[in-house]
Amino acid sequence: MIAWMYRTPLRAVAVCVAAAGLFLVGAVVHVTDLLHHGLQAYDWAPKWLNLYWSSLALLDLLAAAFLISGKRRGIDLACVIMATDLAANWYAAYGIQHSSLAAQPGLQRLLAFALFILLTTPFVRRHLTS
């Protein structure tokens, strides 16, 4: 499972491990929300948005597992998750809560993570296996 790490540049491995760790943190947050509040964790948000955030409990775990195993689909899934999660959270902050980026530290962290994933993907992806 981790043999790919020995034949892959250290920077690519570091990106995958860091990203997997952050996706695991996200999965824990989403699982905790599910356990404490069910599928409607945020009563101010529409059901479809709550369902999306709940689905991240599984999708984040899946991305982390693929990243740790050195699979391209892990970084591809990471890109999809980050792009859609950023869009969903941006919509929630601006469209529903009428807030700003400066007032949303969670959105700021999500933006930083999304940029990290999206900007490192071209380098990392070529070193991963299908």
Keywords:
4 helices, globular, 130 residues
Describe the structure.
The mean pLDDT is 94. The protein has helices spanning 10-37, 47-68, 72-96, 105-125. It has 4 helices and no strands. By secondary structure, it is mainly α. The two termini are 13 Å apart. The chain is globular and about 50 Å long. The relative contact order is 0.16.
Short description:
The protein has about 130 residues and is mostly helical.
Please give the alpha-carbon distance between the first and last residues: 13 Å
Share in helix: over 70%
Provide the low-confidence segments as ranges: none
Q: Total number of β-strand segments? A: 0
Rounded to an integer in angstroms, the radius of gyration calculated over CA atoms is: 15 Å
> What are the secondary-structure elements, in order, as H or E?
HHHH
The main β sheet shows up as: none
- Main structural class: mainly alpha
- Strand content is under 5%
Number of helices: 4
Q: What's the overall average pLDDT, rounded?
A: 94
How does the overall form come out from the CA principal axes?
globular
